[in-house]
Write a structure and sequence with these properties.
heterodimer, A: Four Helix Bundle (Hemerythrin (Met), subunit A), 81% helix, B: 8 helices, 82% helix
C-alpha cells in the first residue's frame, strides 16, 4: 500500500514539474527588463522556500525528539535535512547563474548570498556530526541539539536581509510588498512551481525516512546478533 | 546555580593555570599566525588599516577553537566527566562554569597578544578603547559559549579536534563579521554602524539562552 502511494506521489510530482516547465518556457513571456534569464527565478525562490521549510521542520522534528525521545522524530529530522540540502543547492546555483547574467559576476559577498551559503554549510555539518557518532542514542540527542542551534542561525540568515545593507533584489511577492511589483500570472506560476517542488521534497522525505528507519532496524539487529556471538 | 558555576569556572581556571596546556598553545599559535599573515598581507600597505582588524579576529577565532576544544576533553581523563555529572552541580551550571573559564582564558590570550598585533601591524586601538573592549568581550563570549557547547557535543568523538571547527566556524560567522566591522571602525577612526553592535548582543543573548537551556539534555544521558 505504502509502496503504491510512493509511486503515485512520484508520478504526480514528475507530471506536475513537466507541466510547469512547459508553462515556464513556452507559455509565459520574457520579463520586461531582464529577458529570458528571469525564468531561473521560478526555481530560485521556490528552492529557497523548500530548503527553508526543510530547515524549519528539521528543527521542529529535533525538538520533538528531545521532548518525546521517539526514534521516528530523529529519523525524520535526519531525512528532511538531507532532502533540504539539494534544494538549497538549487537556490544557490540558479542564483549564481542569474548573477552571472545580470550582475556580470558569479558570486558577490552580499549578506543574503553569504548567509544562504553559510546555512547550507551548517546543515552539511549536521550531517557530518551524525556520521561521526556511532552510538544511536547519543547521535540522536546530540544532532537534535545541533539542529536547534542550526535553526537559530538560519533565522539570522533570514533577518540579515533586513539588518544588513544588501545588493540582493528586495522582496517581490505581493504578500510582502502589497502588490504591483510582480505580474499576477508570474506570481501564480511561482506558487505552482513551489507546490511542485514541495511535492518532490515530500516524496524524497518519505523515501529517506523509510531508509533511515530500516537502517536503524538493521543496526539494532546487528547489535543483537553480536551480543549473542 | 551562579555559585556552582563559579566553582566550576575556578576549578577549570586553576587547572589551566597549573598545566598551561591550552594557554601556551593558544598564545604561541596567535603569535605564529600574526607573523604568517604578515607575509600574506603587507602590513606596511596603505590600506592595511582596512583589513588588519579582520586578521586579528581570524587569529582570535583560531585560538578560541584550541581553547574550547580542551574544555570538555580535559575531563575525559580518569572519567572526571562522569564524576562531574554525578555531582550535585546542575548541568546548566557545569556548562556555564566551563564557558566562563574558557572566556577568561581566551580573553587573557587575546589581551596578551594584542600588543604584538598593534606593533606588527602598526595599529592603534586607542581611538575608541571602550568600544574595542566591548567588542572584544561580546565576541569572545559568542565564541566561547558556542564553542563550549560544541565541545560538549563532540567530546566523545574520535575526531573531535576535526569536527569542532567544522561545526562551529560557520555558526560563528555572524558575530565574527560584526567584530571585524567594529574593529575596523576603531582602527580607521570611522565608527562602524551601530547595527553590528546590536547583532553581537542579540547573538550572545539568543545563543547563551539556548545553550543553557539545552545543557541539561547534552550533559545527561
Amino acid at each position: 500500500m505504502r509502496e503504491k502511494l510512493l509511486y503515485g506521489l512520484g508520478l504526480a510530482a514528475i507530471l506536475y514539474l513537466v507541466r510547469n516547465l512547459y508553462v515556464i518556457f513556452l507559455v509565459l513571456p520574457d520579463e520586461m527588463a531582464q529577458g529570458a534569464i528571469y525564468r531561473v527565478f521560478y526555481f530560485h525562490l521556490p528552492g529557497y522556500f523548500t530548503a527553508a521549510l526543510c530547515y524549519l521542520l528539521a528543527g521542529i522534528f529535533s525538538a520533538m525528539y528531545l521532548i518525546t525521545r521517539k526514534w521516528k522524530w530523529d529519523s525524520l529530522a535526519a531525512a528532511i535535512t538531507e532532502v533540504g540540502l539539494p534544494f538549497a543547492a538549487m537556490n544557490l546555483i540558479t542564483g549564481m547563474i542569474w548573477g552571472r547574467i545580470i550582475w556580470g559576476i558569479w558570486w558577490t559577498w552580499d549578506p543574503r548570498l553569504t548567509s544562504a551559503l553559510i546555512s547550507a554549510l551548517i546543515y552539511a555539518g549536521y550531517l557530518m556530526l551524525r556520521q561521526a557518532i556511532p552510538d544511536p542514542t547519543e547521535r540522536a540527542k546530540n544532532s537534535a541539539v545541533m539542529a536547534i542551534f542550526a535553526f537559530a542561525s538560519v533565522i539570522f540568515t533570514y533577518k540579515s536581509n533586513e539588518w544588513f545593507r544588501t545588493q540582493h533584489p528586495g522582496p517581490v511577492l505581493s504578500i510582502r510588498t502589497g502588490g504591483g511589483t510582480i505580474d499576477p500570472q508570474m506570481e501564480w506560476m511561482l506558487a505552482h512551481n513551489l507546490f511542485a517542488l514541495l511535492l518532490l521534497a515530500g516524496l524524497l522525505l518519505a523515501i529517506r525516512w523509510r531508509q533511515e528507519e530500516r537502517q536503524r532496524e538493521i543496526e539494532s539487529l546487528r547489535r543483537e546478533a553480536l551480543s549473542f556471538s | 546555580m551562579i555559585a556552582a558555576a563559579w566553582q566550576i569556572a575556578r576549578k577549570d581556571l586553576r587547572q589551566e593555570l597549573r598545566s598551561k596546556e591550552s594557554l601556551n598553545a593558544a598564545l604561541s599559535l596567535t603569535v605564529v599566525l600574526l607573523i604568517l599573515f604578515s607575509f600574506a598581507f603587507d602590513p606596511a600597505a596603505e590600506d592595511s588599516k582596512q583589513w588588519s582588524g579582520g586578521l586579528l579576529w581570524l587569529v582570535y577565532s583560531f585560538a578560541g577553537a584550541l581553547i574550547v576544544n580542551r574544555s570538555f576533553a580535559r575531563e575525559l581523563m580518569n572519567d572526571c566527566l562522569e564524576a562531574l555529572r554525578a555531582s550535585p552541580v546542575p548541568s546548566s551550571a557545569l556548562f556555564l562554569g566551563k564557558a566562563v573559564a574558557c572566556f577568561l582564558i581566551l580573553m587573557g590570550v587575546e589581551l596578551t597578544a594584542l600588543p604584538a598585533f598593534c606593533i606588527f601591524y602598526d595599529v592603534s586601538l586607542l581611538g575608541a578603547p571602550l568600544m574595542f573592549i566591548a567588542t572584544l568581550a561580546l565576541t569572545t563570549w559568542a565564541v566561547t559559549v558556542l564553542g563550549t557547547m560544541f565541545s560538549a557535543l563532540t567530546v566523545n568523538l574520535h575526531m573531535r579536534e576535526l569536527m569542532l571547527p567544522v561545526l562551529v566556524y560557520p555558526m560563528l560567522i555572524p558575530p565574527l563579521v560584526a567584530a571585524i566591522e567594529l574593529t575596523r571602525g576603531v582602527i580607521t577612526g570611522e565608527p562602524a554602524s551601530e547595527i553590528w553592535f546590536r547583532l553581537l548582543i542579540g547573538f550572545d543573548i539568543i545563543f547563551t539562552a539556548l545553550a543553557v537551556a539545552l545543557a541539561e539534555v547534552v550533559l545527561t544521558d
